[in-house]
Amino acid sequence: MQKVNEHFHSFDELREYMNLSPKPRMKTRNKSRLDAQKKSFAGKCPVCKSPLKYIAGSNVLVCSNEECAGYPHKKKNGEIVYEPVMRFLDKRGTDIGMTLFDE
């Protein structure tokens, strides 16, 4: 058996080094269960309680309510500014989001 002295930072790098096929994406085929998974994954806006919407091909979830102003922040001069509600996903969350939402 050959001894390997290489260092890998992820299983993806190891998979590529060993010439293995990419990890398959498993998507639920049951429509009602898939909808429930999408709803629980996305969550709700903490300001207006409407569901968050996944932006396809990205790592961002945004509020689906166009009337939602977002989080109020008070500046030093007393002016109130509203920032949109966004949730950023990590690598694992992005992979899950792409599996659930991308066609």
Strand-helix topology:
Elements (H helix, E strand, L loop, with lengths): L10 H7 L13 H12 L9 E3 L5 E4 L7 E4 L5 E4 L2 E3 L2 H11 L2
Antiparallel strand pairs: 1-2, 2-5, 3-4
Q: What global shape is seen?
A: flat
Q: What integer is the average pLDDT?
A: 84
Major sheet: arrangement of strands: 1-2-5
Instruction: Determine Rg (CA atoms, Å).
Output: 20 Å
Task: Decide which structural class fits the backbone.
Answer: alpha+beta
SS element count, helices = 3
Query: Strand share of the residues?
Result: 15-25%
Helix content range: 25-40%
Give the total of beta strands. Answer: 5
The span between the termini is 42 Å
Listing every helix as H and every strand as E from the N terminus to the C terminus, the arrangement reads HHEEEEEH
Biggest β-sheet, characterized?
3 strands, antiparallel
Low-pLDDT segments, ≥5 res: none
What does this protein look like?
- This protein is an alpha+beta fold and 103 residues long.
- The protein contains three helices and five strands, in the order ααβββββα.
- A three-stranded antiparallel sheet has the order 1-2-5, covered by helices on one side.
- The radius of gyration is 20 Å and the shape is flat.
- The model has no long low-confidence stretch (mean pLDDT 84).
Short description:
By secondary structure, the protein is an alpha+beta fold. The chain contains three helices and five strands. It starts with 10 loop residues before the first helix and ends with a helix.
